[in-house]
Amino acid sequence: MPIAKYLPFTPIDLPDRTWPTKVATAAPRWCAVDLRDGNQALIDPMTPDRKRRMFELLVRMGYKEIEVGFPAASQTDFDFVRQLVVEDLVPDDVTIQVLTQARDELIERTFASVDGARNAIVHLYNSTSTLQRRVVFGLDRDGITDIAVNGARLCRKLADTVACDVRFEYSPESFTGTELEYAAEVCNAVNDVWEPSVDRPVIVNLPATVEMATPNVYADSIEWMHRHLDHRDAVILSLHPHNDRGTAVAAAELGYLAGADRIEGCLFGNGERTGNVCLVTLGLNLFSQGIDPQIDFADIDEVRRTVEYCNQLPVPERHPYGGDLVYTAFSGSHQDAIKKGFEAMAADATAAGVTVDDLPWAVPYLPIDPRDVGRSYEAVIRVNSQSGKGGVAYVMKAEHHLDLPRRLQIEFSQVIQRVTEADGGEVSPAQMWSVFQGAYLAPGRVELHSHRNVADDGRDHLSVELTADGVRQVVEGVGNGPIAAFVEALAGLGIDVRVLDYAEHALSAGGDAT
Question: 293: Cβ–Cβ under 8 A, 6 or more apart, which residues?
Fold first, then answer.
């Protein structure tokens, strides 16, 4: 491969970096950009109905800042923004955001789209990277700064002409390809025009428009900017990572530790090329650490269904937290550990006199309780040729209420192993029950109908109605327990039974459990 074509990224000289020792204790401000950055990356952009469905989902989940379009780029986007405003579809506590390039006619069209909205963020951007300055614009730094400053001036002027409470956001697009000192220079020049205050802060958004380095380098760049932005107490420092190197989540998390206040992204990581950072993963990563993400993920499957409908793209089965298989174990050792984890939590809860939900979550291989995002335990363990006795035992107990003794677990798992190896696939709970019936519950000489047991002076007197060799009859036996009494009753029929192992478990709960 032609490795000489590519240059390594340059580390940032920041020996006194502080982000590696910091710990997140609260969620950032979120901005969902599914309706703009996500939508523009779709093969078939969303129809108005799909846009509406996505917007309503984001509102239900609790996102308070939602980028709803690039109204100057298409009539469809403009009309959708106007629909939200005219039909009063935006809740009082939600702010819509609209994107515009730093060009006069586009800025004017953008402000026209939000006229009449209660609250709006006008998001101004222009490209600042060394590569785009050279090959796209043919301008030096001063020329690029003039574009940004002139756009900022027009935004400030037009904000007074619309019936809307407008806030400002600026992005030096392709920030990760821009010299840090120049990125700070152009951001500060824009803010000098906007004159932010603590009461009226502006948003400075630092996008990894293309992810070009490891997450620690992005974090270093954010901490450097955090230190060098003017009016820092009046600036909301925002992140917008893309996933070109597959590390957008890590970049966002480390950038947040490095001083950012806000993160822009998409549900399930939709977006240009390899996508934007995934808001689901970021939010539930916080949740898994006991931090409230301030977003409702309680029905992750409903979220996924809506996103798949709106984007007309599937969410991969292995996508963190939301994929079909992310809470499922096929490996035998994993299944055994999960089974024992559930049993240990149940035992600990009983000992403490509380419910399992009152205990810290501690089940191997499951970073969160699937029920917390609306999943059931039914698919946590699925059985194939890689599974062992733990997985088989879990399915038999969870699906069929049979707590198999250890020796039977070992024996039956070998039966299931032969089935999976022969068929080359997964064994469903229904198939497993069918195999169990065939192996252990096949009709034999004796069919039990009913029984009555009376204990007297430490002895059990058992009366059993059964069919033996086709004859329905009642037999009786006495022993030091019901099993011994049943063995004696069968002996009267000429059936010799030897008990090698015995186990029992409750079939229900409570004081009257059986």
Answer: 27, 282, 283, 284, 286, 287
Does residue 465 fall inside a structural domain? Answer: yes
Residues 161 and 245 in one domain: yes
Confirm whether 4 is domain-assigned: no
114/230 same-domain check: yes
Give residue 196's Cα distance to chain centre: 35
CB contact set of 132 (below 8 Å; sequence gap of 6+): 173, 174, 177
pTM for this predicted structure: 0.81
188 and 103 belong to one structural domain: yes
Closest by CA position to 99, among listed 58, 62, 65, 129:
65
Cβ partners under 8 Å of residue 330, min gap 6: 382, 383, 384, 386, 387, 391, 426
Total domains present in the chain = 3
Give pLDDT tens digits for 308-338.
999 999 999 999 999 999 998 877 788 889 9
| Beta partners for residue 124, in sequence order | 100, 170
CB 220 within 8 A of CB 17: yes
The answer to whether 370 and 326 are in contact (CB under 8 A) is no
Contact 429, 399 (CB under 8 A): yes
**Residue 500 within a domain:** no
Whose CA is closest to 451, among 409, 494, 498, 485?
485
- Whether residue 444 contacts residue 463, with contact meaning beta carbons closer than 8 Å, is answered with no
For residue 53, how many other CB atoms are within 10 A of its CB?
16
Q: Are residues 288 and 354 in the same domain?
A: no
What SS3 string covers 314-344? CCCCCCCCCCCCCCCECCHHHHHHHHHHHHH
Contact 224, 182 (CB under 8 A): no
Query: Mind listing the pLDDT tens digit for each residue in 125-180?
Result: 999 999 999 999 999 999 999 999 999 999 999 999 999 999 999 999 999 999 99
Summarised one tens digit per residue, pLDDT across range 75-118 is 999 999 999 999 999 999 999 999 999 999 999 999 999 999 99
Q: Kindly state whether residue 228 falls inside one of the protein's structural domains.
A: yes
The beta strand positions in 179-313, using DSSP E, are 202-208, 235-241, 262-265
CATH number, domain at 425?
A: 1.10.287.1400
User: Domain range for residue 417?
Assistant: 332-440
Give the DSSP H/E element, type plus range, for residue 460.
strand 459-468
8 A C-beta contact, residue 193 and residue 229: no
Q: Is 489 left (phi over 0), alpha (psi -120 to 50) or beta?
A: alpha
**Locate tokens 């917007």: which residue?**
55
The structure tokens listed for 413 are: 């798992």
Residue 252 sits in a domain whose CATH number is: 3.20.20.70
